[in-house]
Write a structure and sequence with these properties.
Chain A: Belongs to the binding-protein-dependent transport system permease family. The complex is a heterodimer. Chain A is mainly α. Chain A contains eleven helices and no strands. The termini of chain A are far apart. Helix content of chain B is 78%, strand content 0%. At the A-B interface, helix 1, helix 3, helix 4, helix 5 and helix 6 of A face helix 1, helix 3, helix 5, helix 6 and helix 7 of B.
């Protein structure tokens, strides 16, 4: 088969481009691999006490402890599971209330002051997301004491960032015409909010809240590790009494709760959108 | 004489719809009220919590002990955290790509065998919170960064696997059909029909995964995984509140830097495609 090259210069420039691209990719991947080697030597090779792990048998023995399920724990699981679920629900709703003012401040078209309050709203969103839920829980445990309340507050604070960010973006993207129409027929500020803005952002916000609720179940399951109630507390107690079968039971309960939450949120989101 | 008839009363929802809407709202509110009762939440404490938070922060956590976080040991811990997050993110992404391939319904190599394996793997990694992974790995591998890196790997598999699978399920099916009709095996289909379409999106998701993994890495140490979290735990237990405040501030600062960096990298990748 003969192949005639009609535009040798074009082919040459194409080849040149390809060579340049290859060099670039090689450099990027070489850099990544060198960086990984440095990380591996720093964190894993130097920092690990290999003799303590005890080779393959030690690891296998460590894992196999978890397989003897402790079925006696079953009746004790019910109330913490309910608590975890309720903490997630209440925390999400509280988070919605907290995120209303933040979204109002952080949406560019409705914010009361663009120079001072808009950056403040944006900063609050980032602050809420950048602090991990465990750290929030620690702060609230020291502020309001042990129990379910610090867990609820920590979940609420952690949810504010995501919910208010999406809400603010939804408010920024609304259609201004219904708002003007309601103003034109004499609606007051509240009626503009309730009939003009709310119906437009309502599906997006509700879907986001349901999504966040799904994640919050996951979060509320670990709140007990730092002193708030729920399944985390039971996990912590089973772990500290070296009852590994009980630990597996708690993890199974968490899995069940989360699968349930995922199914519910899937159908709810379908119903909303 | 003005006509006396009353104006027609307008409401947003007509009769049966309004009943469902308000009924659902009522049920949700009743459930929330019952949850507050069940969880023994002190309502006045809940209402005063944010004010209390300001009081507690001003009282106990101010001024933060900045000199402590500028110490050499702590700066090394920040570097450790960075390395852990990078390693965990990289290993997690490497494991997540095959799992996402298995769990994408449209290109899964075998819908009976590989699809459930992929789905189950991703879901179980996602369902269990990173702190619980850390505790489990610490109990098997001992304290140190190896446990932290393993926990972050599991977390990133769950996080990236879902996003990758969603991305694969949204591809153009034309090239896939073409490869299949030419007799390519599933691996060839994945390599030549799927990867070129999702390459850029995967890079973006991988960078985002690192960002999220860094956020998680800041608390992995709290449960024995090494890094900044270990300092946090020590100072929380010693009630060194001023140091805790400084550590939390340093976490926020580092997360902001990571977020900025990942945003910049993602923008660069999107431009270079």
């Amino acid at each position: 088969m003969f192949l005639t090259i009609q535009n040798p210069q074009g082919v040459a420039s194409q080849l040149d481009l390809r060579r340049k691209r290859l060099t670039k990719m090689t450099l990027i991947w070489g850099g990544i691999i060198l960086f990984i080697a440095w990380c591996v030597s720093g964190t894993i090779i130097q920092d690990t006490d290999w003799s303590r792990i005890g080779g393959r048998n030690g690891v296998l023995a460590g894992i196999s402890r978890y397989f003897w399920l402790d079925l006696n724990l079953l009746p004790e699981l019910i109330i913490p599971t309910l608590e975890t679920f309720m903490m997630a629900c209440v925390g999400t709703v509280l988070g919605c209330f907290f995120s209303l003012p933040v979204a109002w401040l952080g949406a560019a078209n409705v914010t009361p002051s663009k120079t001072i309050l808009y950056p403040l709203g944006r900063f609050l969103m980032v602050l809420s997301r950048s602090v991990h839920e465990i750290v929030w829980a620690l702060i609230f445990v020291s502020a309001v004491g042990l129990g379910a309340l610090p867990g609820i507050l920590a979940i609420a604070m952690r949810s504010v960032g995501f919910i208010s960010k999406i809400t603010a973006e939804a408010i920024e993207n609304i259609d201004a015409k219904p708002v003007e129409a309601i103003r034109a027929v004499g609606g007051n500020q509240f009626q503009v909010m309730y009939y003009g803005i709310l119906p437009q952002i309502y599906p997006v916000v509700l879907a986001t809240v349901i999504f966040e609720w799904d994640i919050n179940i996951r979060r509320s399951a670990v709140m007990g590790l730092v002193g708030a109630g729920g399944l985390g507390l039971l996990f912590f107690r089973q772990m500290n009494s070296f009852n590994y079968g009980g630990v597996s039971m708690v993890i199974l309960a968490i899995l069940l709760l989360i699968v349930l939450g995922e199914v519910i949120s899937h159908y709810l989101r379908k119903a909303v959108i | 004489m003005v006509d006396q008839h009353t104006p027609p009363k307008w409401s947003r929802y007509k009769y049966p719809e309004s009943l469902y809407k308000h009924g659902t709202l009522l049920i949700v509110l009743l459930f929330l009220g019952y949850s507050l009762h069940f969880l023994n939440v002190d309502i006045p404490l809940l209402l005063g919590a944010l004010g209390g938070l300001v009081g507690v922060v001003g009282d106990r956590y101010y001024p933060p002990d900045v000199a402590y976080v500028l110490d050499r040991g702590y700066l090394a811990a920040i570097l450790d955290t960075l390395q852990m997050s990078f390693l965990g993110g990289f290993a997690g992404v490497c494991l997540a790509i095959p799992l996402a391939w298995f769990s994408a319904w449209n290109v899964s190599p075998n819908r009976r065998v590989f699809f459930p394996i992929g789905r189950l793997g991703v879901i179980s990694c996602r369902a269990i919170h990173e702190t619980i992974w850390t505790i489990l790995f610490v109990s098997v591998l001992g304290f140190g960064m190896l446990a932290g890196v393993s926990a972050l790997t599991m977390f990133c598999v769950g996080f990236a696997g879902k996003l990758f699978a969603d991305e694969i399920e949204a591809i153009e099916m034309g090239p896939v059909e073409a490869m299949r009709s030419a007799g390519a095996n599933p691996f060839q289909v994945f390599l030549y029909a799927v990867v070129p379409q999702v390459r850029v999106a995967f890079t973006g998701i991988a960078i985002y995964t690192w960002d999220v993994a860094f956020r998680a890495a800041t608390v992995v140490g709290f449960f024995g995984g090494g890094g900044m979290g270990w300092y946090l735990k020590r100072n929380v237990q010693q009630l060194e509140n001023l140091r805790v405040a400084a550590i939390i501030l340093s976490i926020i600062a580092m997360v902001l830097v990571a977020e900025f960096l990942s945003g910049w990298l993602r923008a660069t990748v999107n431009r270079a495609k």
